[in-house]
Write a structure and sequence with these properties.
homodimer; DNA-binding
Chain lengths: ~120, ~120
Amino acid sequence: MSAENRLNRVFAALADPTRRDIVARLADGDATVGELAVPHDMTVQAVSKHVHVLEQAGLVSRSRDAQRRPCHLEAEVFDLMTAWIERYRRQAEERFRRLDAVLERMDETTEQEGTAS
Amino acid sequence: MSAENRLNRVFAALADPTRRDIVARLADGDATVGELAVPHDMTVQAVSKHVHVLEQAGLVSRSRDAQRRPCHLEAEVFDLMTAWIERYRRQAEERFRRLDAVLERMDETTEQEGTAS
DNA sequence: CAGTTGTACAACCGTTAGGTTGTTGGTATC
DNA sequence: GATACCAACAACCTAACGGTTGTACAACTG
């Protein structure tokens, strides 16, 4: 799957508060769908769907323990997001830095009007 | 607006590749809706909707320049996401660290007791 | 074996999201 | 004032999402 597609799924997965709750719970330890469903006011099936979304996003993996299928958080996927975010945050900050420098120069020579876009 | 709601909107906003493209473009400098629409194979109205979503998420602000309304990237909102992500990444890593310690202790105990089965 | 538990699958339903077209509103420019 | 331009608003369509119910299957338990 492309990085573009992975980003789509990861961001979309974390856009839902129920799924963020599930991630938060799994950060504290593995859990089954049934256990994950307890604190949520919805059916186990609905939680199962949410887990499936997290699985498709690569944020959760499942194993097999008899009839149980514990969910496990794959925290490395977070790196994909932070990498994307940091890239453009830095780019924006770099731009601000340059813009500040320009404005400073304009202050020094207060005779021309700016053309900064 | 609650932090929960802000997170919903920010993650959902960045789940769309068109909107991530817009953010990437704006990291390089402010732009109008018309300019943002050029590289995208869709109508200006559609791009306008995407910008509106980014605006609601707090990722973009607009100003007024005659009949133009330039879009400006508000990169500080990224902090909200990175804070959430880092929190649970660290929690998961801490859990792994403790688990590793437990497993190490179990290895030591096994060696001491010899446990010939 | 029967019964219970944990989970998955399928069908359905109401709401939202992403896109279109058409129309309207400000703001230059002629 | 007439015209052209940028952008917003409204209505509409289709597809996807988040939830439900019902059924089914596999594995433990009695």
